[in-house]
């Protein structure tokens, strides 16, 4: 019978809840300093960035607005298709706005590359990226990411918002999925 404990499906914890909390506080302090006196719009990319957005935004001391965008390039597979589709667009007109895109992970970089072009075309005053995780070995396009939490190996990870087939998002740490889960 399938075990109900998420942890039996993991081979390794890569980043702990505590490490994430510490890092997000550091990034928030930088963001507070960099955007002092500016009107900041945080844009989270659904659904993976939900946890990062919740913790990062609450670690900020300044006023921010929060909006969400849903795009898809993955489906239930573990490889990027490179084809980005808007599932839910912004509610906000970002022309003239200072936008900080909040992401869970930069893998190939294809999704963010597309989003950056898309936001630039809408006339944002500035666009920066904050990603909790980045896989340098997986990059297909270079992304200029001002705020990065952790560089990690080229493994498929889950937890802290990141899913496999919509599961594991509620895990508090970031972990590598065990091979028997794919089989
Ligand atoms: P990219 O376009 O940079 O390849 O990645 C697009 C999206 O795929 C990410 O924002 C993330 O939602 C998902 N993704 C990329 N790598 C991983 C991974 O290791 N685990 C999980 N669960 N999702 C990933
Ligand atoms: Mg994402
Ligand atoms: Mg996913």
Automatic annotation (TrEMBL):
<dbReference type="GO" id="GO:0052657">
    <property type="term" value="F:guanine phosphoribosyltransferase activity"/>
</dbReference>
<keyword id="KW-0660">Purine salvage</keyword>
<dbReference type="InterPro" id="IPR050408">
    <property type="entry name" value="HGPRT"/>
</dbReference>
<keyword id="KW-0460">Magnesium</keyword>
<protein>
    <recommendedName>
        <fullName>Hypoxanthine phosphoribosyltransferase</fullName>
        <ecNumber>2.4.2.8</ecNumber>
    </recommendedName>
</protein>
<dbReference type="GO" id="GO:0000287">
    <property type="term" value="F:magnesium ion binding"/>
</dbReference>
<feature type="domain" description="Phosphoribosyltransferase">
    <location>
        <begin position="18"/>
        <end position="164"/>
    </location>
</feature>
<dbReference type="InterPro" id="IPR005904">
    <property type="entry name" value="Hxn_phspho_trans"/>
</dbReference>
<dbReference type="GO" id="GO:0032264">
    <property type="term" value="P:IMP salvage"/>
</dbReference>
<comment type="pathway">
    <text>Purine metabolism; GMP biosynthesis via salvage pathway; GMP from guanine: step 1/1.</text>
</comment>
<keyword id="KW-0328">Glycosyltransferase</keyword>
<dbReference type="InterPro" id="IPR000836">
    <property type="entry name" value="PRTase_dom"/>
</dbReference>
<dbReference type="GO" id="GO:0006166">
    <property type="term" value="P:purine ribonucleoside salvage"/>
</dbReference>
<keyword id="KW-0479">Metal-binding</keyword>
<dbReference type="GO" id="GO:0006178">
    <property type="term" value="P:guanine salvage"/>
</dbReference>
<dbReference type="GO" id="GO:0004422">
    <property type="term" value="F:hypoxanthine phosphoribosyltransferase activity"/>
</dbReference>
<dbReference type="GO" id="GO:0046100">
    <property type="term" value="P:hypoxanthine metabolic process"/>
</dbReference>
<keyword id="KW-0808">Transferase</keyword>
<comment type="similarity">
    <text>Belongs to the purine/pyrimidine phosphoribosyltransferase family.</text>
</comment>
<dbReference type="InterPro" id="IPR029057">
    <property type="entry name" value="PRTase-like"/>
</dbReference>
<dbReference type="GO" id="GO:0000166">
    <property type="term" value="F:nucleotide binding"/>
</dbReference>
<dbReference type="GO" id="GO:0032263">
    <property type="term" value="P:GMP salvage"/>
</dbReference>
<keyword id="KW-0963">Cytoplasm</keyword>
<dbReference type="GO" id="GO:0005829">
    <property type="term" value="C:cytosol"/>
</dbReference>
<dbReference type="Pfam" id="PF00156">
    <property type="entry name" value="Pribosyltran"/>
</dbReference>
<keyword id="KW-0547">Nucleotide-binding</keyword>
<comment type="pathway">
    <text>Purine metabolism; IMP biosynthesis via salvage pathway; IMP from hypoxanthine: step 1/1.</text>
</comment>
């Amino acid at each position: 019978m399938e075990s109900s404990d998420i942890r039996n499906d993991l081979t390794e914890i890569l980043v702990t809840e505590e490490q994430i909390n510490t890092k997000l506080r550091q990034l928030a302090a930088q963001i507070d300093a960099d955007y002092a006196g500016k009107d900041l719009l945080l844009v989270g990319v659904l659904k993976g960035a939900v946890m990062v957005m919740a913790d990062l935004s609450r670690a900020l001391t300044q006023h921010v607005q929060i909006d969400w965008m849903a795009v898809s390039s993955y489906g239930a597979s573990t490889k990027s298709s490179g084809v980005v589709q808007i599932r839910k667009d912004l509610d906000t007109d970002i022309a003239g706005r200072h936008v900080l895109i909040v992401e869970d992970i930069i893998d190939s970089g294809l999704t963010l590359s597309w989003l950056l072009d898309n936001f630039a075309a809408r006339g944002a005053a500035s666009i920066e990226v904050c990603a909790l995780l980045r896989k340098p070995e997986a990059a297909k396009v270079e992304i200029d990411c001002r705020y990065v939490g952790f560089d990690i190996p080229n493994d498929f990870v889950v937890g802290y918002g990141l899913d496999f087939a919509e599961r594991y998002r509620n895990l508090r740490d970031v972990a590598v999925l065990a091979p028997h889960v794919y089989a």
